[in-house]
Amino acid sequence: MPELPEVETVRRGLEPAMVGARLERVVVRRPDLRFPFPPGFAERLTGRTVEALGRRAKYLVADLSGGDVLVMHLGMTGRFTVSGGPGGTVSPGAFHHQAGGDAVHDHVVFGLSNGHAITYNDARRFGFMTLVPRATLAEHPLFKGLGIEPLGNALDGALLAGLFAGKAAPLKAALLDQRLIAGLGNIYVCEALHRAGLSPKRAAGTLATKAGGPTAAARRLATVIREVLEEAVAAGGSSLRDYAHTDGSLGYFQHTFRVYDREGEPCPTPGCKGVVRRLVQSGRSTFFCGVCQR
DNA sequence: AAGAACTCCTGTTGGC
DNA sequence: TGCCAACAGGAGTTCT
């Protein structure tokens, strides 16, 4: 799925179209995405006003009048497109299902009181939406176990060392674990590890000292995680196969990848004579330089 | 209990 | 050109 920078970019695209508007019409074209929609999903949304649109980890969280929260996850291929609006024209396909092409994956459409239509398209249907009472959101199974926000103030070397102390799992797996840090995915983990000069295979626990404090590596990693995410947000995320902004434009951070999807290319670290290699860790690709990442 | 493997689904890509 | 295998940014569930 889109990782944190992509979800944040989508949030920023949806916010001006959604917040303050009432959901006048909700079209749901199939009973499920990754999970079934909750009972009465469209009916429970209709008539509600979107009071705020936030993000937690890779989830979009829309606060609705009446006390419920609409939780949305983009999975791997989920995409929101905004059309219409004051003085604009709603794309013809929004409320009339198109028979062919990409539009067969237009699964949900929100018609808003300000004239905007927001279409959710998701070919692989790894995304999902659900409704949760706001008061119980923190206790919801999807949210209860989530780790810290990597762009929040809490993330530093000491916190990282605390999270990783005693862990035998490789750094790659530990960074992907949403229960520790929430929002990183395959791309930004690969990029952060390269920037920090740390091997994805190294045991996570080696970033803590015997006393549980941060090593220099832990401090470095905390710094570059923040750095790579901030740069990616500023670039509007990374567009590979499936990701686009809510207006259809693309992010451009993929042009700054140092290792991701660059197998066989020379390592970009100044002075390093290594070559970017690919290895599979827990079933997914890791890109790294075996020379400068130790 | 931690860590790894498997699973959901469809579209694209690269090799022959 | 066609065919087929490998692969894709996630994460809940199930295994060892």
Which key phrases capture this entry?
DNA-binding; 294 residues; alpha+beta; Helicase, Ruva Protein, domain 3; 4-stranded antiparallel β-sheet; 7 helices; N-terminal domain of MutM-like DNA repair proteins
Summarize the structure.
By secondary structure, this protein is of the alpha+beta class.
Q: What is the strand and helix layout of this fold?
A:
Layout: H1 4-18, E1 23-28, H2 41-45, E2 50-56, E3 59-64, E4 68-73, E5 78-84, E6 106-112, E7 116-122, E8 128-133, H3 141-144, H4 157-164, H5 171-176, H6 186-196, H7 216-234, E9 276-281, E10 284-289
Antiparallel strand pairs: 1-6, 2-3, 3-4, 4-8, 5-7, 6-7, 9-10
The chain binds a DNA duplex (16 and 16 nucleotides) through residues 1-3, 6, 34-35, 58, 73-77, 105, 122-127, 141-142, 167-169, 173, 176, 178, 185-188, 238, 240-243, 260, 281-285.
- Largest sheet features: 4 strands, antiparallel
Give the ordered list of helices and strands.
Answer: HEHEEEEEEEHHHHHEE
Mean pLDDT rating: 92
> Which regions have little confidence, pLDDT < 50, spanning 5+ residues?
none
Shape: globular
Strand order across the largest sheet: 1-6-7-5
Give me the CATH superfamily of the largest domain. Answer: MutM-like, N-terminal
What is the CATH class name of the largest domain?
Answer: Alpha Beta
Helical amount among residues, as a percent range? 10-25%
What is the beta-strand fraction? 15-25%
Report the CATH topology name of the largest domain: N-terminal domain of MutM-like DNA repair proteins
